Amino acid sequence: MGVASQDAIDQLRALMDLVSEPLRATFQNVHQGYINETLVRFLKAREWNVSKAHKMLVDCLNWRVQNEIDNILSKPIIPPDLYRAVRDSQLIGLSGYSREGLPVFAIGVGLSTFDKASVHYYVQSHIQVNEYRDRVILPNTSKKHGRPITTSVKVLDMTGLKLSALNQIKLLTIISSIDDLNYPEKTNTYYIVNAPYIFSACWKVVKPLLQERTRKKVQVLPGSGRDELLKIMDYACLPHFCRKEGSGSSRHMDSGSENCYSLDHPFHQELYDYIRQQSRLHEAAEPIKQGSFHVDFPEPQAEGSEIAKTIESELNKFNLKINGD
């Protein structure tokens, strides 16, 4: 790291030393003892501009306080059947760890339907996974490896991607904006697998719109990506949809314990048990209420809005082409 970068970190750290409660308390939940690494993430997200990174970080902390994000891991989605419905329609899971110790998150982009609950439940679920990753998984793997591990790997399964994805763009833009503004630079690499033609068509026009640092993180792998992914992780850590040769996947191709999207997978069992345990600790002060945990949605960033519009335009063109044929 160069002198200029270290100067930027020192300047931002001096500014953050000035914040008072309750921002100071929520900042501890963000950095988990890895302050410099956290400052670097926000500096990278703002091209190493200290003033802009400081504003971004303070805005993030205010968002956390205003939306009680520190308490979101004590707010289970109940009843369990509703949570299972969310899991069945918002496909995400932890399949294992890379050989460097980075968590490997699998995301079923193509087969997620987001049609079993309100937007608020999906946003709540997404933020809970983020917070569990940052406050439990990453600190644990950092301790295990004896060094800071503050990012993860994401494997995006495009199996089943259809024109109906248009219906999900608004929700996906909301979730993407929450991540961009409040969880920046948490993904080391995005691996795209099982990409159908429709994805390839969109990717050609979306790729130039991405910032260079984001573009460099995206790798589109052939087929299921198995051979390439085995270079960075063991077979046991591959997402279930990457374990066979070629392309193609299925939401239900494996049993619950193998399918990392499923509520029956160990990751989701541990996550749900953790949230229920945390809720019991808060029960005396505040009884559990049924209903979603509402979080203010940020205005989509200019880049995200442009990308969403471009994808929508390309999908519409694709639809016209198919119907024209």
Automatic annotation (TrEMBL):
Coiled coil: none annotated. It comes from the Eukaryota. Residues 79-239 form the CRAL-TRIO domain. SMART domains: CRAL_TRIO_N, SEC14. It holds the Pfam family CRAL_TRIO. InterPro entries: CRAL-TRIO_dom, CRAL-TRIO_dom_sf, CRAL/TRIO_N_dom, CRAL/TRIO_N_dom_sf. Transmembrane segments: none annotated. This is CRAL-TRIO domain-containing protein. It comes from Acacia crassicarpa.
